[in-house]
Amino acid sequence: MMDAFKEFFDIVGVFFVLYMIGYASFLFLAVTVGTSELYKLKRRNQLKNELLGEYYVPVTIVVPAYNEEVTIEANIRSLLALDYKLYEIVVVDDGSSDDTSKVVRDAFHMQQISRPIQRKIPCQAEEVIYESYEWKVPITLIRKKNGGKADALNMGINAAKYPYFICMDADSVLQYDSLEKIVRPVLEDSSVVAVGGVVRPCNGTEIHDGHVVSYRMPDQIVPCMQVLEYDRSFLAARILFDRFNGSIIISGAFGLFHKNTVVEAGGYDPGTIGEDMELVVKLHVYCRENGIPYRIRYATDAVCWTQAPEKLGDLCKQRRRWHIGLFQSMMRHRRIFLNPKYGLVGLISYLYFLVYELLSPYIEVFGILTIVLAFAVDLINVPFMILFFGIYVVYSAILSLTAFFARIYTVDLKLSFSDVLKAIGLCVVEVSCLRLVLAWVRATALIGYRRRKHAWGRIERKKIRFK
Amino acid sequence: MKVEFMIYIYGAVCASMIVFNIIYNLLLKGSESRMQNRCQKMRSKINAQISRLAAGKNVEEAHLQELRRKLSHINHLMAFHQVLQEDMEKKPDLYREYRHQMRPVVIYMAAVYRDKENMQAGYFAYFLSCYTADKQMAMDSLQDILLDYVQKSNLYCRFNALQALYHFGTPETIAKALRIADDGSVFLHEKLITEGLLSYTGDYHALIEELWKNIMRYSPHTQLAILNYIRFRSGEYQREMYEIMMDKKADKELCLAAIRYCGKYPYEPAYGPLLAFVEDKDDTKWEFATVAASSLASYEGAAVIDALKEALHSSNWYVRYAAAQSLEHLHVNYGDVVDITAGSDRYAREMLMYRLESRKLQSLEV
């Protein structure tokens, strides 16, 4: 019996060593490439190697909203403050049970209008449409039957008048220059069909007319740790994937898409709650299968500020949704896995997301259970285990801090000394505690997920400090 | 043992990344003050020369020599640029003269930066686009060197060099630069070309003439950008555009651009063909019908109204939308289109009603 245990633990040990080496190598490569890319970009901008001038690609901003009466007005005001000329705002109220539509109608003096909308992508019927031409750019409000976020986005695409659209969340605000920055890749390369922006938690940040007037780490621990986590994932992994056109996720909080390509690919899938990732994978598949030259880019300087959940419960809910979305997207497009037809997307991106995102919570929980079992049968070297865990924590914390500081320095944000200390302290907590909690949440996310298929994610909203 | 070795390697590299971050941050903080120092020194040197100019003397040769040496370094060039930008408005005439006397230095620098890496070359081209912002600064030899910058296979370098040429280049050089940039090695969005040409401050008639003379030497992509530029700038190319519109072999996008031109600048001979485009029921030609329907907003007559009303029944959404929009532009009343608003075609009715309501809404709010 003991021999069997030993053999089992040996196999598990080898597996985990390979798993950790793979992850460490990836993370290291990603952070190195991401950091150097950011510094390069800063230098490039200093030397005016950018498309300076007023080059406006017409863009429709689609804001899907469901029970967003608290944040929707600030969101639209932030959109009106954007430093860009040629755009329109389309708010889609997905059958909210609160006063979302009323808030928009009253705040922006909207008038009801009978507007026909072409159903290029199927979606639930509109109930009533309002428009306003009183502001810097036209605003449209469409109230429709509830159908989920993907369905609301499809309605927004159908109503969009311009060739590019931006999808964003109603609880987010765009930085004043974010539109100009996110369209640049389109001006640089005609084959660009989608561009992802950077999403940053705005908790603790004060934004005035789209400009950050004061930046500090959030007071609460949970959003503070998310700041570190967002930087690590956005500035590291996505920049690396961008290098080989392998990005398979553009955050639903801020992304630009070529409308016709999205329509031809079938739009957002209302059957998944990870509609943002599903669409990007679908675009890869569509373009590759039809021999369309394409690029999916990532704009590291196009910034969207979003509210990170402040309560652990809300964070868990959010991550559960994300994990289900990841599962659905990956299952739906499983044929691209290791399929040479899909190039590095199927080989590297899909493999990474499968092993280190989708399966990682199960692997991590399995690892912990194995440790417990080994401890129970007295087959564990406790000092070595502690040393190994310590190395893991220090290693991950250093990479998180590298990404965090790289971001801070390259975008000219000023950080107080106490915030630096907070970041250093909390990155250790994040990798050693929060990660394990979230691993458990994600590991159990798929239990009963079918019941929540079309539901909007709900977290407690606070008014955004946008002036 | 191997695993431990890898862990140590990773740990060492990560630690060095943190050290790099810290050093970079310190350098960054120091770089601002270093730049300020550089600017201060540069300012005092320039001010001395400005004082000489104010006293009716020339810029010292020693100063020009020093500039040749110093401005070959990008950081000094940036400081020099910053000082000029900040101080130029104070004494514009003296600074103009200063820049005039500095021309040999600029030409020398152009040759120096031409051989530097693309990013630095791009900055120099940007500097030129700001520095030589008036036609007096135009120098033939500088324009020739800038053509070498346009040749570089780097988007930003090309873009900045073109921007510089739009500021002080001759029509011949700009036309030549666009031909070089049209080599296909670097994608230059047609919007960048059109907007760039629009920023040209010289005689745009001469520029258009030069571009038109060479139009067949450009790719359809650049031709489209030029056609759009002409549409924004001049109404004197109606006949030429009409010919493109009628040319069955012409590129589709060029043809559509020509139809748009005929919409912006009504041209009698185009009237019939535009009606024909709108009346064409061929589904594959919906783009022509849509753009022609938009263009007809600039034409009058019962035939136009009839054609647009008929287009409201098109199976294509965009054709219906464009037709409704044009009818709205032509200020049709509800009475004029009662056959549509009370008709049985729901799609036509909805589209027209929307545009009429929309017009009402805009007139209330604007």
Can you offer a commentary on this structure?
The complex is a heterodimer of chains A (about 475) and B (about 375). Chain A is an alpha/beta fold. Chain A has one domain (about 1-465): Spore Coat Polysaccharide Biosynthesis Protein SpsA, Chain A. Helix content of chain A is about 50%, strand content about 15%. In chain A, strands 3-4-5-2-1-6-11-8-12-7 form a ten-stranded mixed beta sheet, sandwiched between helices. In chain A, strands 9-10 form a two-stranded antiparallel sheet. In chain A, strand 1, helix 2 and strand 2 form a beta-alpha-beta unit. Chain A is globular. The termini of chain A are far apart. Chain B has about 375 residues and is mostly helical. Chain B has helices at about 1-55, 60-70, 75-85, 90-100, 105-115, 120-130, 140-150, 155-170, 170-180, 190-200, 205-215, 220-235, 240-245, 250-265, 270-280, 285-295, 300-310, 315-330, 340, 345-365. The longest helix of chain B has about 55 residues, at about 1-55. Chain B is elongated, with a radius of gyration of 29 Å. Chain B starts with a helix and ends with a helix.
Tell me what the CATH architecture of chain A is. Answer: Alpha-Beta Complex
CATH superfamily of chain A: Spore Coat Polysaccharide Biosynthesis Protein SpsA, Chain A
CATH topology of the domain at 266-366 in chain B: Leucine-rich Repeat Variant
Gap from first CA to last CA of chain A: 68 Å
Walk across the major sheet of chain A and give the strand order: 3-4-5-2-1-6-11-8-12-7
Uncertain regions of chain A: pLDDT < 50 for 5+ in a row?
none
Number of alpha- plus pi-helical segments of chain B: 20
How many β-strands of chain B, per DSSP? 0
Determine the fraction of residues in helical runs of chain A and give it as a percent range.
40-55%
